[in-house]
Amino acid sequence: MRFLRRKEAESVAESESGEDAAVEDARSKAHTPGKGRPTPKRRDAEQRKRGPMAPPPRTTREAMRRARGNKDERKALAAKRREIRVKQRERMMAGDDQYLMPRDRGPVKAYIRDLVDSRRNLLGLFMPLAILIFVALLVPDARVQSLTTLLCLAMLVVMILEGLLAGRRYTKLVRQRFPKEPVRGLSIGWYAFIRASQIRKLRVPKPRVSPGDKV
């Protein structure tokens, strides 16, 4: 009987030791070994990408020399950017599609601009008329204000009629010149009206034709 009990105790001990070994093995597999070093901070990583930092200046003269060098670099960069902007504006004023706004791009819009620029119209007085109305409102005389208002209203009506007639004419000419292009009369008329209502010297891009030229 003692022999059987000892045998059972040994078998239980062996099973428990086997379970403990299995648990330890599973833990060792689930455990991820450490990197051996702490995770670097984001600031340190970005600094490492930019390269090593220059040592701090040892003297006041060296610090002033570095500040002067940084200032010269900023001036050179600003001058380069200014030159690029000037070049872009020159190309835009010349009518280069690459530098124009999306609303002004394409051969159809260039043709409309040429049509508008080749004519003299009352719509070119739209902005001076608005300035005249503003000045008239500052005059304390009621008669001057009323007369100026009536004159401006009459001219405004004439400008609107002129814009409508010109829009219909331009739409017809565009459809004849570009029969395969999708042309909308309202879009062409509005674009021509905006172009014609601007002072000639302030139009962007600059006019390529003179008044009276055939387009």
If you had to describe this structure to a student in words, what would you say it looks like?
By secondary structure, this protein is mainly alpha-helical. 67% of the residues lie in helices and 0% in strands. It is built from seven helices and no strands. α6 crosses α7. The longest helix is centred in the C-terminal third of the chain and has 36 residues. The N terminus is likely disordered.
In short:
By secondary structure, the chain is mainly alpha-helical. It is built from 7 helices and no strands.
Mean pLDDT: 78
**Weakly predicted, low-confidence segments:** 1-10, 12-17, 29-34
Computed structural class = mainly alpha
Helix content: 55-70%
**Approximate shape:** elongated
Number of helices: 7
Features:
215 residues; mainly alpha; 7 helices; elongated
Mind sketching the topology for me?
Elements: H1 2-30, H2 42-50, H3 60-93, H4 107-117, H5 126-138, H6 142-177, H7 185-196
Helix pairs in contact: 4-7, 5-6, 6-7
